[in-house]
């Protein structure tokens, strides 16, 4: 799944070897609505726990018994799910008939399944011949644990049996389980498409991690794999989709309806089952590669009228299926590959086997109307989800603590595929600028957690769909692949997949396969990266003829305590040295401190070649300045890493902001978009933290203006036919930087183009790739008229990305009255719940008025919380993204006091992250404000 973290922090520590087994007892899960995080004070206590791989088989089994799982009296072999009598409007209810082929492993009078918001009418156990063996005499629900217990009068002996259940459910509007999505069609609609008020509806599913139980009773755990037969009754004019191709259609229960039956799935986990119903059309391509002698159809489905916007995703998808079949040395395992655009979707996409579902902006691109950056996003998200068809679907993590196995790997290999097809995009530099830096940020907080997180209760797993699982996970995989060599690494991955196909596996299984392929003990040097919290900073001290390198845990607050700093990471130093940095020393730092001979205070060197290692580097000030004066000798990744490190070290106090500003000055002539994106990010953080100090804020504004102006004026406003993707993005970024720094000429031109477009004098005056910049600067600098014009465009646009762009631009207003109107609009039914975070992000980045967002939340809490509570993922995202930018201890205290008496279970981890971020920002502001002002004055910026 991609973009669950559009992210959350989760549990801390690693799996321990218990001293004795837990007592055998009936265990019920805690409420999904009340997951609780491990308190931060327990962090130090976890430092000495032993990884599971060092335990005996017996002790590992006992560790797994610590999980709160379903009673092990029966295991599913096959589900036959039949849904019918769908109420397409009104109650949105449906009926279901379920038959589960079970292997009963011990005599029992009770069978417990997962179930949420499902009403079971009756249940019976049948023999394989259809004879009744037992009828349920008691059906009880535990809403807290999301379970239903079926109690039988007769004992069921160990055997292969069939559990038959009749039930009813609801197609909710919460973007999880079996749910409905509303939309406004762009063309003619089939007469039997569901409709209420002004909206039409499509139906689809979202089951990861624990929401298959919302659609039908099931054994909803990843290692309880089975096959699935699925059928559904739908209107004849509607298209039904599922994981497998259609097997047959037959008449429904009443005229106008039909039953659609699908082929049996391979063995898989419940969270990967999927179906959808709607007024769909599709575009199709066949794979070039042959599978069992024939090509596989690859389709992208949309609601009617949007299928042409699916062509770019289709182009990516059919080639990616072939590419991964070669890379993984296993042919794509299903007879078809469908992608579906879903109008309301909480995450970015979901890897359901054979029927991948996507947020519309992650799969649709309108050539000539969509911003080019969405092409990059679509190519990556398509590749990420298709990677899961092998890594996650074919081979699934054994339990949710190893979620990173799915997500970290899919992230890395997704970029690998994009780089293969679009090498001109330089996506590994993009990964370093975006993915690695975001992972660094979250992992530098005390609120972080190890990549592999103990998950006792499956309902807690939402907490670890975050930048640690996705981005730190993929960053350490990149580090490992560079160290082993990409070919060796992929050979080990292919062996891992072949060994565990159609089963479940662990992190240790992957390390074993990679160890065998490489001849190295991957376990020994990767375990700390996976099972320990945080990451190191390597501090360099220079001496004649040598340098000393020392590793310590890096915290954004710069105050790691001894008990938080006991990990010894394996750190590939990747030291480039010599006049042209042409010599590379591949040694690793495995001790807390070590010396490197041959490189000293008179040498020219750069540590962490191409930022392939997941760590910060702290150079002596004079050497940092020397690197800043030799930028032409550094790779794009090196430059991004140098800037990212200097920025983070300034925040923590281990470096200085004057050193950062001096380094930034050297990038005036830079021409690479991805380097400029890091320059922009570093400056944006400075301007955000010091925004309330008027002199410093004005000085940083002038600093940004002088730095960006030459490059912005050089690139100009005009796009050229066939212009390189990175040049297009650079133009947009530099114009934005110049406008936001007050460049009169650029601001005037942005207003001129906006006026021509708004008045209809020239509908092409605002280039599609500059909508975000021009709309944003006009709202920021303009009056109510500009605000209302962009708002009207939001309501009118049929561009897939247009609503996202307009909503973000509206949050740029500095007018307090308009901010309140904007927030009223964001929380109205005009804005989809899935997009509420866009309003929070935009206002949080708007330093002049971000406090008004917090005031609005407090004053309108009932309405705000009611709207956000439709989906906990959205709720958490809004809180975390909306409140993390403040740099004031008093606001932090106010936030804590406000939420003290609230039920914060949907976003409790977000509040910890918010508190950490504000504490970091406020401490940085207080420590460096005078120093920054002094430097700005000395250099003529104030």
Q: Strands across the major sheet, in which order?
A: 3-6-5-4-7-2-1-11-14-13
Helix count from the secondary structure assignment: 26
* Average residue-wise pLDDT: 92
**CATH evolutionary superfamily of the domain at 74-220 and 227-266 and 269-388:** tricorn interacting facor f3 domain
What is the second-level CATH architecture of the domain at 74-220 and 227-266 and 269-388?
A: Sandwich
- Stated plainly, the CATH topology of the domain at 74-220 and 227-266 and 269-388 is called Immunoglobulin-like
Keywords: Aminopeptidase, Hydrolase, Metal-binding, Metalloprotease, Protease, Zinc
GO molecular function, one term: metalloaminopeptidase activity
Protein name: Aminopeptidase
Cofactor: Zn(2+)
Give me a quick take on this structure.
The chain has 942 residues and is an alpha+beta fold. The chain is built from 26 helices and 31 strands.
What can you tell me about this protein's structure?
About 6% of the residues have low confidence. The chain is built from 26 helices and 31 strands. The longest helix has 31 residues. Helix content is 38%, strand content 20%. The chain has 942 residues and is α+β, with helices and mostly antiparallel strands. The strands form 7 sheets. Strands 3-6-5-4-7-2-1-11-14-13 form a 10-stranded mixed sheet, with no helix packed on it. Strands 8, 9, 10, 12 and 15 form a 5-stranded antiparallel sheet that branches. A 5-stranded mixed sheet has the order 16-17-18-20-19, covered by helices on one side. A hairpin with a 2-residue loop joins strand 9 and strand 10.
């Amino acid at each position: 799944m991609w973009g669950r973290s559009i992210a959350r922090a989760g549990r801390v520590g690693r799996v321990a070897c218990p001293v004795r087994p837990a007592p055998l007892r009936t265990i019920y899960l805690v409420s999904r609505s009340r997951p609780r995080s491990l308190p931060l004070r327990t962090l130090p206590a976890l430092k000495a726990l032993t990884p599971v791989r060092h335990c005996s088989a017996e002790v590992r089994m006992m560790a797994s018994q610590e999980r709160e799982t379903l009673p092990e009296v029966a295991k599913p072999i096959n589900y036959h799910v039949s849904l019918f009598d769908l109420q397409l409007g009104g109650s949105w209810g449906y009926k279901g008939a379920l038959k589960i082929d079970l292997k009963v492993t011990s005599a029992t009078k009770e069978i417990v399944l997962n179930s949420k918001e499902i009403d079971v009418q009756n249940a019976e156990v049948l023999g394989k011949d259809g004879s009744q063996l037992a009828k349920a005499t008691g059906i009880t629900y535990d809403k807290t644990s999301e379970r239903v217990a079926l109690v039988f009068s007769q004992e069921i002996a160990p055997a292969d049996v069939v559990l038959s259940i009749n039930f009813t459910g609801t197609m909710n509007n919460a973007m999880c389980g079996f749910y409905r999505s509303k939309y406004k069609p762009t063309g003619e609609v089939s007469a039997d498409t569901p409709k209420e008020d002004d909206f039409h509806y499509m139906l689809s599913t979202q089951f990861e991690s624990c929401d298959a139980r919302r659609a039908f009773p099931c054994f909803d755990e990843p290692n309880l794999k089975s096959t699935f037969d699925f059928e559904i009754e739908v209107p004849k004019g509607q298209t039904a989709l599922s994981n497998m191709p259609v097997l047959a259609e037959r008449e429904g229960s009443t005229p106008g309806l039909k039953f659609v039956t699908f082929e049996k799935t391979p063995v898989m986990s419940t969270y990967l089952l999927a179906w959808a119903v709607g007024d769909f059309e599709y575009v199709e391509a066949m794979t070039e590669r042959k599978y069992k002698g024939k090509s596989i159809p690859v389709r992208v489905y949309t609601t009617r009228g949007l299928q042409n916007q699916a062509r770019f995703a289709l182009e990516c998808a059919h080639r990616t299926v072939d590419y991964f079949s070669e890379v993984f040395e296993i042919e794509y395992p299903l007879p078809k590959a469908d992608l579906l655009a879903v109008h309301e979707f909480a995450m970015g996409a979901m890897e359901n086997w054979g029927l991948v579902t996507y947020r519309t902006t992650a799969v649709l691109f309108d050539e000539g109307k969509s911003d080019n950056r969405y092409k990059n996003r679509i190519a990556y998200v398509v590749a990420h989800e298709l990677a899961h068809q092998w890594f996650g679907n074919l081979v699934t993590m054994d339990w949710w603590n190893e979620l990173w196995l799915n997500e970290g790997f899919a992230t890395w290999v997704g970029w690998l595929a994009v780089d293969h097809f679009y090498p001109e995009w330089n996506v590994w530099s993009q990964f370093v600028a975006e993915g690695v830096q975001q992972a660094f940020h979250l992992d530098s907080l005390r609120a972080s957690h190890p990549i592999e997180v103990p998950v006792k209760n499956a309902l807690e797993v939402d907490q670890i769909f975050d930048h640690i699982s996705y981005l730190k996970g993929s960053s350490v995989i990149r580090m490992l692949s560079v160290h082993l060599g990409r070919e060796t690494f992929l050979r080990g991955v292919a062996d891992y997949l072949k060994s565990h196909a159609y089963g479940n596996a662990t992190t240790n299984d992957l390390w074993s396969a990679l160890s065998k392929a490489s001849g190295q003990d991957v376990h020994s040097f990767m375990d700390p990266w996976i099972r320990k919290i945080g990451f190191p900073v390597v501090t360099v001290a220079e001496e004649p003829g040598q340098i000393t390198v020392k590793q310590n845990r890096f915290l954004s607050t710069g105050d790691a305590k001894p008990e938080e700093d006991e990990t010894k990471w394996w750190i590939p130093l990747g030291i480039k040295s010599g006049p042209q940095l042409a010599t590379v020393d591949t040694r690793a730092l495995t001790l807390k401190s070590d010396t490197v001979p041959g490189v000293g205070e008179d040498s020219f060197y750069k540590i962490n070649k191409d930022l392939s290692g997941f760590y910060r580097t702290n150079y002596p000030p004079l050497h940092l300045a020397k690197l800043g004066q030799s930028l032409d000798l550094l790779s794009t990744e090196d430059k991004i890493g140098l800037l990212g490190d200097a920025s983070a070290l300034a925040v923590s106090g281990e470096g200085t902001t004057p050193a950062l500003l001096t380094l930034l000055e050297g990038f005036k002539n830079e021409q690479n978009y991805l380097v400029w994106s890091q320059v922009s990010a570093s400056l944006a953080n400075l301007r955000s933290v010091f925004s309330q100090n008027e002199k410093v804020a004005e000085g940083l504004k002038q600093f940004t203006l002088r730095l960006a102006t030459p490059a912005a004026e050089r690139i100009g406003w005009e796009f050229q036919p066939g212009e390189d993707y990175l040049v297009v993005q650079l133009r947009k970024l530099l114009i934005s930087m110049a406008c936001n720094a007050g460049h009169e000429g650029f601001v005037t031109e942005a207003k001129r183009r906006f006026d021509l477009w708004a008045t209809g004098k020239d509908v092409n005056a605002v280039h599609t790739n500059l909508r975000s910049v021009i709309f944003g600067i006009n709202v920021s600098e303009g009056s109510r008229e500009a605000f209302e014009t962009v708002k009207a465009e939001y309501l009118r646009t049929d561009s897939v990305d247009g609503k996202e762009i307009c909503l973000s631009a509206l949050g740029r207003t500095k007018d307090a009255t308009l901010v309140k109107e904007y927030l009223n609009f964001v929380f109205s039914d005009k804005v989809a719940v899935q997009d509420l975070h866009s309003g929070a992000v935009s206002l949080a980045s708007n330093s002049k008025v971000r406090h008004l967002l917090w005031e609005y939340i407090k004053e309108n809490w009932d309405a705000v919380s009611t709207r956000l509570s439709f989906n906990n993922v959205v709720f958490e995202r809004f809180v975390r993204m909306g409140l993390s930018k403040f740099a004031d201890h008093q606001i932090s205290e106010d936030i804590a006091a406000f939420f003290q008496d609230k039920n914060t279970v949907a976003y409790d981890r977000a509040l910890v992250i918010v508190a950490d971020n504000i504490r970091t920002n406020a401490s940085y502001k207080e420590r460096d404000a005078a120093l920054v002002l002094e430097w700005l004055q000395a250099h003529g910026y104030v």
